[in-house]
Automatic annotation (TrEMBL):
InterPro entries: Fervidolysin-like_N_prodom, Peptidase_S8/S53_dom, Peptidase_S8/S53_dom_sf, Peptidase_S8_subtilisin-like. Residues 261-448 form the Peptidase S8/S53 domain. It comes from Pedosphaera parvula (strain Ellin514). Keywords: Hydrolase, Protease, Serine protease. GO terms for molecular function: serine-type endopeptidase activity. Pfam families: Fervidolysin_NPro-like (PF22148), Peptidase_S8 (PF00082). GO terms for biological process: proteolysis. Belongs to the peptidase S8 family. This is Uncharacterized protein. Residues 133-204 form the Fervidolysin-like N-terminal prodomain domain.
Amino acid sequence: MLSNFMAGMRINFPSWLMLVFTSITLLIGPSLSAASHETLVWNQKENKVDADITSWDLSQLLQNVANATGWKVYLEPDVTRTVSAKFEKLPAGEALRAMLGNLNFVVMPASNGVSRLYVFRTSQQSATRLIRAVAKKAPAKPIPNEFVVMLKPGSKTKIEDLAKALGAKIVGRMDGQNAYRLQFDSAASADAARLQLADNQDVEGIDSNFYVQRPPDVNMSVSTLANDPDLQLQPRTNSPGDCQLMIAAIDTPNQSLGKNLDQFINPTIHVAGDVSVDPNTVTHSTAMISTMLGNLSKIDKGGTSVRIQPVDVYGNSEQATTYDVAKGIVSAANSGANLINLSLGSSGDSILLHKVITQVSNQGIPIFAAAGNEPVTTPTYPAAYPEVVAVTASDSSGKLADYANRGSFVDMIAPGDSVVRYNGQSYMVEGTSSATAYATSMAAALADRSHACADQALSLLKSSASGTASISTSK
């Protein structure tokens, strides 16, 4: 149990340069790309466009168009182009033609909604890949009327008495960690309580609590793949003495994937209470679990003994907190999970979350986390913690995806595109979330295939790669 601080092998994760295993790469030096001075200015009021572009790839161009216009932009998968264009004050249609060259495009205006741009080589119906607009996010700020108090081991102070004295409400408790989430009537009351606890000998520490935004659900069906067969995966019994490998998917609520696949999925652990899920929408967790099972099937050749433990830290809310994520990891590890998948993140650096991750790492449990879907170098947590394998995403050509974080904390690049099946339909998902699910399941599959335990999964992943050059980094 995590609350006992089990001693075990600590996994230290150096960053590895260009270790290629099929379509997965282990990285990295200081940065994946240099800053660009190329520009696209879209004046929507005048419907005129200025551009000074020398070497953008097509996805980068369309992402900038989505950012500038607010349109939903769809691209035919595997269509590529290097964009070079320089002009001023061209009408929007002429500007698109100048930048897209011989590619076809259709703009569908919407008077009461969001306009759509389809870019394709063969047909409009083939433009199914959504190019996401990336809004600049403000740095995470602590929840103003909350904090997490951590009591020292063996403390005689009861949290109920302490909360009453502070005028706080206990809204979360992790007794095994001596960590308690306290909520106050106002930010001023929370600040005053922090001052009161500054000299309390029974308090080990006080931590801010940060919001972690809910990853988006999947809502775009890929019509060209509608007739794809459902995934068939067969259970394989462990040999005597084999470890039971179990991936914890710390995520949103999940849905049934059908009788054949549900046999690999444990009942969900709900950290954020009971939930209701819209059956017409594919939740983020469902897509990640489907991605993992698909990858297990490919690597384990249609059969696996790996199980998946869903842990819902969002419930019906649009956001979780770093406290919820920490509690989810503890719950997963205590349920027997021995690989952790965190297809989520924020810019909030939490003492408690890092403490829990350190404990899990010390038990020999590999942890994979998403680097983030912004083309920046700033850290995303928990991916940026040194005990975590930070995963960024590649595009269909194997290059760094235009939307993906490329910071020095990144350890690994994996495919960011995944097609998942749900209720007889195929859906395209894209991002560092699916890249993380790909990486975690690959590590599990390699261990499963080798009859190894989870604490050997990372070394198997590394030794399976080719071109074994390694470098030292701050991580």
